[in-house]
Specification:
By secondary structure, the protein is of the alpha/beta class. It has helices at 4-12, 14-27, 33-47, 59-64, 66-70, 94-110, 127-135, 158-171, 199-205, 210-227, 240-256, 266-277, 347-355, 383-393, 422-429; strands at 53-57, 77-81, 117-118, 140-141, 145-147, 174-175, 184-186, 189-191, 194-196, 230-234, 261-263, 280-287, 290-296, 303-306, 309-310, 314-316, 322-324, 328-332, 336-341, 360-362, 369-373, 397-400, 409-414. It has 2 domains: 4-257 and 410-429, TIM Barrel; 279-406, no CATH class. A 4-stranded mixed sheet has the order 3-4-8-7, with helices on both faces. The protein has a 4-stranded antiparallel sheet with strand order 12-13-18-15, with no helix packed on it. A 4-stranded antiparallel sheet has the order 16-17-14-22, with no helix packed on it. Helix 1 (4-12) crosses helix 2 (14-27) and helix 10 (210-227) runs parallel beside helix 11 (240-256). The chain binds zinc ion (ZN).
Length: 432
C-alpha cells in the first residue's frame, strides 16, 4: 500500500504540501467544533436554494463522529462512502478492496445510514475496483475526474502553473473536449464524473480565494448548461469559508436559468440515470412518414422533438428541440426520426447512444433514416465527436431529454470529508 504522506507529496508537490500543512492547522481543530461549523455554513448556503449535497466521508471518520454527522441527515445531505480508511484503493488487492467496502458499509449501517455511492480517496480508480464496488451493493461510483476548459495555464504565475500541471498530471482527468460530463450506466453501476478544477486546485494550488472560485465555477456552469451536461462541483467542507461566495453565485445563477438546471444529490442522479436509461419508445408506423410513439419512462421523462410535425402541444426548448407535453403522440417525418445504425456498428457505441436518450434502430437501410451511423470501431474518447456530429446535422429526431422535467443540465454539489479534527487528519496520514 502507498504511504499516504508519499502519496500526498506526489499529488501536490513539495511547496503545495508545506502550504497545505499550514492550512490544515487553520481548517481543523482538536475537536469537531470547527468542522461542525463548516458543515453548518455549507448547509445554510444550500438551504437558501433548497438544494441538497453529497458528502462522501471516510468510514473511520464517521465512526469517530457519528453524532456530529448524523444530525445533518435531515438537511438534505447524502453521505456516501469515501473509503473505509483514506487510502489509495487502486493499490489494494481485490480481497482487501472488498473487505474495506464491506467494513465501510457496516460502519454506515451502524450510524443509521444506508450508503448507495462510493468515491475513492484521491479519486483513485482501476479496472477491478468498480466490480468490487458493485458487488458490495453500491449503485454508483464517482471517481472519474473530468477537466473543464476554464483555466489557461499560460496566464498563471509560475508557482500556480506548476501546481496546476501537477494536479492535472496526478488526476489524469478526462478532457471535456473529448468526453461528456454525464453519468454512464455500466453493468448496473452508474459512473458519475466529478468536475475539475475543484476547490483544492483553485485554493491550494492556484492560491485563489472566492473570486477565482466564483469565476471558474460560473464558467463551468455556463459550459455545462450549454452542453446539457452535469457539473459535479467538488467543495471540501473545510474550505467552505473560502468558497461560499462561489457556491452562492453558482446556485443563484443555476436557479435563475430557464429551462432549469436540475440540482440534485449523486444518489438522486444515479437513480434517475438508471431509470431513464431503461425508458423505452415504442414506435408503430401509421402511414408512410407517420409514426405513433409511446414513451414508457420514469416520472419526469421529457420527450424532445426536432424538425418534425407532432400532433400534441409542445414548447420551445434548447438547440432547436421542442419539449412535448405528452408521452403518446403521432409524429410526421419524411424519414424515420430516429438514429439508424448498421448491424456492424460497435455495441459500445449503441449503448452510449441509447443512454443519451436516442431511439436507436439497427438497420441496413441507411436511406430510411434522417441520421445513420456505420461505425465499427468506437471507444469513449470519441463520444464528444459522435454526439457533435448528430447534433450538428439538425436532422429530424425524437429523443428523450437527459434530465427530469425538462431540465437542460444538472448540478450536483459534493464535498469529500476526510477528517473532522486534527487527530483524524493525523491518523489519516498513517492510513488509519
Ligand atoms: Zn479525501
Amino acid at each position: 500500500m502507498t504511504n499516504p504522506i508519499t502519496f500526498a507529496f506526489k499529488s501536490k508537490g513539495r511547496l503545495a504540501l508545506i502550504k497545505r500543512a499550514r492550512s490544515i492547522a487553520k481548517r481543523y481543530s482538536l475537536t469537531p467544533i470547527q468542522m461542525d461549523r463548516a458543515l453548518q455554513q455549507f448547509s445554510d448556503v444550500l438551504q437558501r436554494f433548497d438544494c441538497g449535497a453529497t458528502l462522501p466521508i471516510t468510514a473511520v471518520t464517521l465512526k469517530r463522529h457519528s453524532d456530529t454527522i448524523t444530525k445533518y441527515l435531515d438537511k438534505n445531505f447524502e453521505f456516501a462512502v469515501h473509503g473505509f480508511t483514506h487510502v489509495d484503493y487502486s493499490h489494494l488487492a481485490p480481497e482487501l478492496q472488498a473487505a474495506h467496502l464491506h467494513l465501510a458499509r457496516q460502519v454506515f449501517t451502524q450510524a443509521g445510514i444506508n450508503p448507495t455511492g462510493f468515491r475513492s480517496p484521491y479519486l483513485s480508480r482501476e479496472s477491478n475496483l468498480n466490480s468490487a464496488i458493485k458487488s458490495a451493493g453500491y449503485s454508483y461510483v464517482s471517481n472519474q475526474p473530468i477537466l473543464w476548459d476554464v483555466i489557461v495555464p499560460d496566464a498563471l504565475n509560475p508557482f500556480a502553473t506548476t501546481g496546476y500541471e501537477q494536479a492535472v498530471a496526478f488526476y489524469n482527468p478526462w478532457r471535456i473536449g473529448e468526453r461528456l460530463s454525464l453519468p454512464l450506466l455500466k453493468d448496473q453501476l452508474v459512473e458519475i464524473p466529478v468536475s475539475l478544477p475543484d476547490d483544492e486546485i483553485l485554493i491550494d494550488r492556484l492560491g485563489g480565494a472566492n473570486d477565482i472560485v466564483k469565476e471558474t465555477w460560473l464558467r463551468i456552469l455556463s459550459q455545462s448548461y450549454k452542453l446539457g451536461e452535469l457539473f459535479t462541483l467538488q467543495l471540501h467542507p473545510e474550505r467552505i469559508k473560502l468558497c461560499a461566495d462561489g457556491l452562492l453565485a453558482v446556485l443563484s445563477k443555476a436557479c435563475a436559468l430557464t429551462p432549469k438546471v436540475w440540482c440534485a444529490r449523486l444518489d438522486e442522479i444515479a437513480t434517475w440515470w438508471k431509470a431513464r436509461s431503461e425508458a423505452t419508445i415504442e414506435v408503430s408506423t401509421k402511414n408512410d412518414g407517420e409514426y405513433h410513439c409511446i414513451v414508457n419512462g420514469p416520472n419526469g421523462t421529457t420527450v424532445l422533438a426536432r424538425a418534425v410535425q407532432v400532433n400534441i402541444p409542445s414548447s420551445p426548448w434548447m438547440n432547436g428541440y421542442r419539449a412535448l407535453k405528452a408521452t403518446h403522440f403521432n409524429v410526421q417525418s419524411p424519414m424515420r426520426p430516429f438514429i439508424g445504425v448498421s448491424p456492424s456498428t460497435s455495441i459500445e457505441l449503441l449503448h452510449f447512444l441509447r443512454q443519451q436518450g436516442f431511439l436507436v434502430e439497427i438497420s441496413q437501410e441507411s436511406m430510411l433514416y434522417s441520421c445513420f451511423i456505420d461505425q465499427v470501431n468506437y471507444d469513449g474518447s470519441q463520444e464528444r465527436a459522435v454526439l457533435d456530429k448528430i447534433e450538428g446535422t439538425g436532422c429530424s429526431l425524437i429523443r428523450l431529454g437527459r434530465w427530469p422535467d425538462g431540465a437542460q443540465s444538472a448540478l450536483a454539489v459534493t464535498g469529500d470529508i476526510d477528517a473532522l479534527t486534527l487527530w483524524d487528519y493525523g491518523l489519516r496520514l498513517i492510513g488509519k
